[in-house]
Design a protein that fits this description.
This protein has 277 residues and is α+β, with helices and mostly antiparallel strands. Helix content is 21%, strand content 25%. The protein binds one DNA strand of 15 nucleotides through loops.
DNA sequence: ATGGTAGGTATCCTA
């Protein structure tokens, strides 16, 4: 049973519907996790995404900012929105998929400009949400099988996850304190970094390029902020990953590009549902 | 060293 999962910070789903359809056509994900949908649930373009083949949709959105949505060709069950740090931000959706898979769709705060939790509440919030998630997964470690965690984690952990490691050591997204917080979250289950099992850590990989560059491809000052993580039991079934950076060249693009992983999972996990595939 | 752009919303906040 092949399962293709894509994560994409779409930066306003309503503005990006045509690009969403193009990504779906070219990447063909079974499950598409979006972040920064920037729309209240009542205004979510349900008809449009159903028209793209996603009959199962879980939205957790708010006006203007943040918001996550999980679009699926396979049935979703047990979906829940989880709020962290006692704020109303919509940043985390959990859904169960056939095969007893548990899928987390996350949007970690960007964290503002000043990498000091004492003076910058947004940076403090970012660290606190990463810490809270790590503690939560650590507490659930015993039942932590068949877990997929994807999303815009807003941290580039490896030196090769940014265009210039030394220059970005004091830039939010690559500071040591954030990287440590992200690593604690990764160790919590622990999770396997799917992209880095297929692309060696010596190789630079980016999923985000600032809008502020004159020529994003020529300057290539990117960062790897978007991630797909797997619980250890799922890692052996990973077939390939892909990063669709052509999406960054579309007219009025998101500053993030889709990241995709395909798993080839045992048919026995899916029972009768696996027969049709 | 600096400032550069984009989206939502309503004039500035967040990324």
């Amino acid at each position: 049973m092949r399962l293709r999962v894509t994560t994409w910070n779409v930066n306003s789903i309503r503005l990006r519907l045509d690009q969403l359809a193009l990504v779906v056509e070219r990447v063909r994900p079974d499950v598409l996790c979006l972040q920064e949908t920037k729309v209240e649930d009542a205004r979510f373009p349900f008809d449009a995404v159903r028209g793209m083949g996603f009959q199962h949709v879980f939205v957790h959105g708010q006006k203007t900012w943040h918001g996550v949505a999980t679009l699926s060709r396979l049935p979703l069950s047990g979906c829940e929105a989880i709020r962290w740090c006692n704020v109303e931000d919509c940043r985390h959706a959990v859904c169960r998929l056939p095969g007893e898979l548990e899928l987390h769709n996350l949007y970690i705060p960007a964290g503002g400009d000043v990498p000091d939790p004492e003076v910058n509440p947004r940076f403090r919030h970012k660290l606190e949400m990463l810490e809270a998630l790590a503690a939560w997964f650590e507490a659930r470690r015993r039942q932590a099988e068949r877990v997929i965690l994807v999303g815009d984690l807003n941290v580039a952990p490896l030196p090769t996850d940014v265009w210039n490691h030394r220059a970005l050591l004091d830039v939010v997204s690559h500071t040591p304190v954030e990287v440590e917080a992200l690593e604690r979250l990764q160790r919590s289950l622990p999770f396997v970094d799917a992209v880095r099992t297929k692309i060696p850590p010596e190789e630079k990989v980016f999923t985000w390029w600032s809008y502020r560059a004159r020529d994003w491809r020529r300057s290539n000052r990117g960062r790897r902020l978007d991630h797909i993580w797997l619980s250890p039991d799922l890692a052996p079934y990973l077939v390939f990953v892909r990063i669709d950076d052509w999406v960054r060249d579309l007219e009025r693009p998101s500053d993030h590009v889709p990241v995709t992983a395909e798993l080839d999972l045992p048919d026995s996990w899916f029972g009768d549902a696996a027969v049709r595939s």
